[in-house]
Amino acid sequence: MVNKLLKYDLKYMIKNMAIFYILSIFFALTTRILFNMEQSAIINIISQISVGCMFAMIVNTLINTIMRSWIRFRDSLYKDESYLTHTLPVTKNELYNSKFIQMLIFFFISFIIILISLFIAYYSKENWLAITNYIKTITTGLNISTLFFITMTIIIIFLEIFNAIQCGFLGIIMGNKMNNSKLGYSVFFGVIIYLIAQAIILLLVFIYGLFDSTVMELFKTATINIDVKAFKVLAIVSSLLYILIIFIMSMLCKKELNKGVNIE
What we know:
Blueprint: H1 2-36, H2 41-78, H3 82-85, H4 92-122, H5 125-142, H6 146-175, H7 182-209, H8 213-220, H9 228-257
Helix pairs in contact: 1-2, 1-4, 2-4, 2-6, 4-6, 4-9, 6-7, 6-9, 7-8, 7-9, 8-9
């Protein structure tokens, strides 16, 4: 049944997100073409417009992935559509799992579309060398593997945004338990839950630092000229803590959903 629920969730997201994916790629292509044309005042102006449109679509791709995930979650569980949703022979856990998987799939797709758009628009041997040399300058100075640095940076950014989206889910669940101003309460609870999640992660890192002096140094000094092991450990520990927080929060969301849903 989760597969059937997910099918409808994916159709909804595709219908709403396809235009941003297409436009991101389209303006990336036009940017690439215009950059490779003989430059003139008019071509330069059009090129900058194309670049602006491409970045606007990239930003909209990310923002709409987040917003549409929240809207889909709210509409299917608390708005008119929910009257049908809650008559289906499925558990609240299955309903949440469908939304969770849908969010994961489309967040990943959006991430890939953004990378593809930037690659199409800006890739060249010169630009690639400039980027890799810049990253190597950072990683060499910190004595960190370039692959490790890039991989952990992407993972942490991904988990950070994914965690924020799920905080919004829990905020929506809590907000819709109120008798009025449900949207306002949903936003309020979502922000508070996000801040609490960040505080918990920071606290857990601090607790870990009590047993690892290299990590504790990050709390004691304002300089970055410290043991590089601390950065490696911090990146790995932070990623694991984000995964733990995401898992725990999904359990909380399911627990709150199973307490009952107040349909508007």
